[in-house]
Amino acid sequence: MHYINFESKYDRFPTTKISGFQAYRGYDSIYEELCSKCGANTVLVFDYYPGVDEKEVMQLIDRFDANIKIATYDIFKESAQINEQLKYHITEDRVFGKMYYGDFIDLIDEEKLSKAQEQVQNTSGLRIVYGVAASLVAKGDVLVYFDMARWEIQMRFRKGMPNYKMDNADEDNLRKFKRGYFIEWRLADKHKARLFDQFDYVVDTNKSNDPKMISGEAFTTSLKALAQKPFRTMPYFDPGVWGGQWMKEVCHLDCDQDNFAWSFDGVPEENSILFDYNGVVVELPCMDLVLYQPKELLGEQIYARFGAEFPIRFDFLDTMDGQNLSLQVHPVTEYIKKNFGMNYTQDESYYILDAQENACVYLGLQEGIDKKQMIDDLRAAQKGEIIFDAEKYINKWPAKKHDHFLIPAGTCHCSGSGAMVLEISATPYIFTFKLWDWERLGLDGLPRPVHVEHGKEVIQWYRTTQWVKDNLVNATYEVQEEGNDCRIEHTGLHALEFIETRRYTTDKVTVHDTKGTVNMLNLVDGKEAIIESPDHSFEPFVVHYAETFILPACIGAYTIRPYGMSENEEIKFIKAYVR
User: Fold this and answer.
1) Domains of the chain
2) Cα angle 205, 208, 213; round to 5
3) Helix axes 27-35, 54-61, angle to 10 degrees
4) Is beta strand 360-365 parallel, antiparallel or unpaired with respect to 413-415?
């Protein structure tokens, strides 16, 4: 089956070329470069993001004839002590923890740290300190940071990698991911961000036994350059129990896979960015850009409001020839703050990028339902005593291409089968309270987590049929913008949500201005478009159908027009920004 009538040019590996720097590929090349920087009395520090394979890196470390080699693994507290210290944040839940805002030093044995620091100071010759948070022992004469993207860490969790300093290789992957999300990655990002301008080198460790190293200057220069131009993150794709077939065709994925359920294409917390140094492609976490260039990327206003966090998220949910998503609800702000330590919540929307006949979206409650009976039925369904009658309680709306369904937190919802959803939302993405999962097991063979007790605390019971129809289903109206002679529509989001979305339909040039805040867009119809700078401050940037792209706040004015298409052929793109 073909879902589109043209050849997709969707680019899975969007890469930015950087001139004037070289990348060192492989441990042989890295060793030679580092040796050239080490004198007779040098402290060489290898600092890691948790998840980096230390056994692999040891093939580099073991080549050095150092007088001492200090592993930071040995100065961290023992796992039982760490678990006891963090038990409030780890929780017993499979999915949800509580956000930890501390530092690595909280988990380190300070007496052992002090001895390690003294050992470095009191020893001459070549000294090596290596491991997570190694720069707490010594900044060193040469500081090398080994980086890794969160998605790769998750893939390694699935293959049996434990959390840092933990003996939990066989633990439920959801629990390992939870520990990363709520604790490890928060500590590591905070630690890393303090060191950006001190790095002598940065190593991409995302591919096993294929490291690529760049200088600290190349690292900071590349991030500064990316913050001044349109760019895309590298998307990733994952199968799921409800997954569909659309992304296989449009995004050029493995046809032998049963399905692909979802994709993150435009989630800087999770996605990577790719830089090409004379043919060597280096992958870095996009969070490095957010943390290093927050004002340039986000804008002063968003930075003041959210800090160094990218507040908008675009992702794909594919149920084309697939199944319904789980029936779910997201926590309201007060609940997510009190229970999980997050400052804002997972408000979202479903933009229907494509749809089959009979596609639908479940959204909001039926009029006049019995609240207690609904919760009792959900509990009974969770125990396997009944099959939950979703349509007795939840509205089922027909969905067609380019519909936009708004989903402020607290609204019961899910996409039905036969839809290709571009989800436009606030960035928090783990906080889904599943209410009913249609009697399914996960791909791991375990029941998928259901959180009826959380859900019942946040459901907004007044969001019934008429209210949903008036406020959340295609709440679209035309707007005028100076300088643009085309159809422009406000499509969302709801007044309770902080994101504005506008859809442009045009066969000519449209003019835009970031007005000091980051813009995130997707080409929702048409083969290609080109983004250009009126004053040539950045090179023309071509995007293809279904690609998400980011315009940093500091860009200011830009234009978008159809590209590589027949005359008078239209494009549609949707733009999101913080109100």
Assistant:
1) 15-227 (3.40.50), 236-267+310-472 (2.60.120.10), 477-578 (2.60.120.10)
2) 35
3) 50
4) antiparallel
Q: How many other C-beta atoms are found inside a 10 Å radius of the C-beta of residue 209?
A: 10
Neighbours of 111 (CB within 10 A): 9
Structure tokens at 479: 């707007």
Q: Which of 23, 16, 42, 211 is nearest to 141 (CA)?
A: 42
Mean of all residue pLDDT scores within the chain: 96
User: Residue 183, exposed/middle/buried by CB under 10 A (0-12, 13-18, 19+)?
Assistant: buried
Distances (CA, A) of 118 to 70, 106, 228, 562: 12, 20, 44, 63
Residue 461 makes CB contacts below 8 A (sequence gap 6+) with 365, 371
The stretches of 10-78 forming alpha helices (DSSP H) are: 27-35, 54-61
Q: Tell me, what DSSP letter sits at residue 553?
A: G
Mean pLDDT of 325-342: 95
Question: Looking at residues 341-365, what average pLDDT do you find?
Answer: 96
- The amino acid that residue 179 corresponds to is R
H or E, element range at 157: helix 150-158
Q: What is the mean predicted confidence (pLDDT) over 420-437?
A: 93
Spatial neighbors of 491 by CB under 8 A, at least 6 apart, are 351, 404, 474, 475, 476, 501, 502, 503, 574
Sign of CA dihedral 374, 378, 383, 385: positive
Q: Which residues contact 167 (CB under 8 A, 6 or more apart)?
A: 79
CA-closest candidate to residue 527, choices 4, 121, 3, 53: 4
As beta bridge partners, residue 191 has: none
Question: What CA–CA distance (Å, rounded) separates 367 from 344?
Answer: 29
Question: 397 by DSSP, 3-state: which?
Answer: strand
Q: Distance between CA atoms of 298 and 567, rounded to whole angstroms?
A: 35
Residue 206 gets which letter from DSSP? S
> Look-up: residue for tokens 């199968």?
239
What's the confidence (pLDDT) of residue 30?
A: 98
Q: What is the DSSP letter of 326?
A: P
Name 506's bridge partners.
571
Which strand ranges, in their side-by-side order, compose the sheet holding 548-551?
A: 477-478, 487-492, 499-506, 571-578, 519-525, 548-551
pLDDT (0 to 100) of residue 447: 75
**Residue 160, helix vs strand vs coil:** coil
Written as six digits, the tokens of 121 are: 């100071």
| Cβ neighbours around 175 below 10 Å, total | 19
Intra-chain end-to-end CA distance of the chain, in Å: 40
CA dist., res. 248 & res. 209, Å (int): 29
- By 3-state DSSP, what share of the chain in percent is helix, strand and coil, each rounded to 5? 30, 30, 45
Residue 536 token pair: 């040539």
Rg value, the chain, Cα: 25
